[in-house]
Specification:
13 strands, alpha+beta, 5-stranded antiparallel beta sheet, elongated
Length: about 280
């Protein structure tokens, strides 16, 4: 099964710079540990119509999406409502989520030496964190029992898309993401290795290299040719990292062709760099 994984990271505090995002880098790491790769990422502020519009597009994409943030029950948390709007489903208190949240409230009362009162205003408010789109499935939260949720999206090219909604707190979200991957996507783990081979090319212009890149991709459709310009730092000369990535056998065929073109044109190059992506 071929899956596309992407992330949606929600929160005004990230867009304003009040907090630095760590979800993107960690999501890449968690996926890479399982031989998977991220294909897209985007950020959104705490804006209900904006989140709903993004989710509507993501639900239609067939992607496997991990959404971080905005699933609490304060006025600036809009993700649950946005998911329901995007799916055209009503919101409802999920029975399993309600059970987990009540367990959490009982734990809190016991820790304080208090009697648990389910009708107390703050306890009734906490149940709002279990109000999800009607057809949602819960994601267990081993940290404090307050669950996330998953909703099915469109099927594209035979692959059914899902959006998995996680808290914004890394201590909760990252183990929950790993658990979802292990439970749902194990059939895709480490299916195919991806190799990347590149060199730094000095004194070259991207416009001159682009025709080679186009020709190489046409000749070897299984590989992706990339260029990454750098102005140089720490005394290093400005350069373009030029390379190919893809299945090892395809890279092994394409790489000598690219190297040969560089040598024929007298390019100044660094030593070859090889990276096993997964």
């Amino acid at each position: 099964m071929s899956y596309r994984f992407s992330v949606l990271i929600i929160g005004d505090e990230i867009l304003s710079g009040k907090r630095q995002d760590g979800h993107l880098a960690k999501a890449i790491e968690i996926l890479a540990e399982r031989g998977l790769q991220l294909t897209g990422a985007e950020y959104a502020g705490d804006d209900l119509p904006g989140i709903a519009a993004r989710l509507e597009r993501l639900f239609a994409s067939g992607d496997q999406v991990f959404s971080f943030g905005g699933i609490g029950a304060t006025p600036d948390d809009h993700t649950r409502q946005a998911a329901a709007l995007a799916l055209g489903q009503p919101l409802a208190l999920h029975p399993q989520a309600a059970e987990r949240i009540r367990e959490r409230m009982q734990d809190m009362a016991r820790d304080k030496g208090e009697a648990f009162d389910p009708e107390r205003a703050d306890n009734r408010q906490r149940l709002q964190m279990g109000v999800f789109p009607a057809q949602a499935q819960i994601i267990e939260n081993p940290y404090n029992k307050i669950p996330g949720f998953s909703c099915a999206g469109a099927t594209v090219n035979g692959v059914g898309g899902w959006v998995h909604f996680l808290p914004g707190f890394p201590v909760m979200a990252w183990p929950m993401m790993a658990a979802v991957l292990d439970a749902r996507y194990r059939d895709a783990f480490h299916l195919q290795a991806v190799t990347e081979r590149s060199v730094k090319v000095y004194g070259a212009m991207e416009s001159a290299l682009t025709p080679w890149m186009v020709e190489l991709e046409a000749q070897f459709p299984a590989v992706k040719v990339f260029s990454l310009p750098s102005v140089g730092h720490a005394g290093e000369e400005a350069h373009i990292e030029l390379g190919v990535k893809g299945p090892p056998e395809a890279v092994a065929q394409a790489w000598p062709v690219l190297q040969g073109r560089l040598h024929q044109n007298g390019a100044r190059m660094s030593a070859e760099m090889v990276r096993e992506i997964r």
